[in-house]
Amino acid sequence: MxxxxxxxxxxxxxxxxxxxxxxxxxxxxxxxxxxxxxxTYYRQRASAGLIVTEGVPVSPAxxxxxxxxxIYTPEQVAGWRKVTEAxxxxxxxxxxxxxxxxxxxxxxxxxxxxxxxSSTSQASDKIMVFALDAEGKPGFIPATPPRAMxxxxxxxxxxxxxxxxxxxxxxxxxxIEIHSANGYLLEQFLNPVVNDRxxxxxADTMKxxxxxxxxxxxxxxxxxxxxxxxxxxxxxxxxxxxxxxxxTAQTYLYLAGEMANREVAYVHLMDQHVGQxxxxxxxxxxxxxxxxxxxxxxxxxxxxxNMTLDTGNRLLEAGVLDLIGFGQPFISNPDLVERLRNxxxxxxxxxxxYYGGGAEGYTDYPAYDPAAAS
Length: 374
Prior knowledge:
By secondary structure, the protein is an alpha/beta fold. 32% of the residues lie in helices and 16% in strands. Strands 3-4-5-10-11-12-13-14 form an eight-stranded parallel β-barrel, surrounded by four helices. The protein has a two-stranded antiparallel ribbon with strand order 1-2.
């Protein structure tokens, strides 16, 4: 039976273990260009079998968080090259998560103070974004009401993802992950309650509301190949005001089958039911994971969300997953893999330093020293 510390073949690489450092926004790039501190952060965590970066905006319009590095300018590509070189020097494998937030943004983060774009013009007073408040201080404020994208803008965004994927490969990434989860732009098309379009991307059929996602996947594959392409989904997630709908299970099984047909490198599922006492730390129950495994039988299947060593090993042994994603534990435990392997205690992250700031709460968490603890 596979275990968390076993190796795994992915996209022509042999991962040293089956842990995935899941994407986490850290907002440490005021110029939108990753610097040496960002490279240090990822290098410190390169013992993960696979690192997936924080969400990386694919265009200026894709931004929805202060101080997040993009991947659409030559300067950003050069900055990310420092990161990939640092991770590779430690023997790590790293994918860039390509991101467009859609309506989960604020006018202050958009060019000329424009409204964010989305599948819809529906506003939500439940979406909060990390931006500058009325006093010019960073903090969480309500999102600006969005503007529905034109059909031409949707198609241009497909090309933005494809170009960002090519930029990522130029920057030295081993592959990319398309962010189609957590209530951001792609899920704003997938969700038939939010998507009220009447063009070919509308919610009148499952095929139409999935069209945008699949066109992005196809365009990315055309540029960089299927084995360098992964994707993230969050079935039943309600983050960023994603309302429930009846066809959730069928939607993601359909998408998993389409990913199998395209032979993408992996499907990464995000469990948003953290702390709600769900069995196996998952709102996506074991039966559904088995259905996902059947729909997507050959590539790597990943689950992130409140994972532990025991839960991860149990799901690996059940054969429903190939890799196990860990998010917040990697913040305060750069050596998380060794801590889990040796049964060493985990440090608790400081939530006050999650977003923005400098090295504090970012690169200053030390590796565990067993000699000092004895």
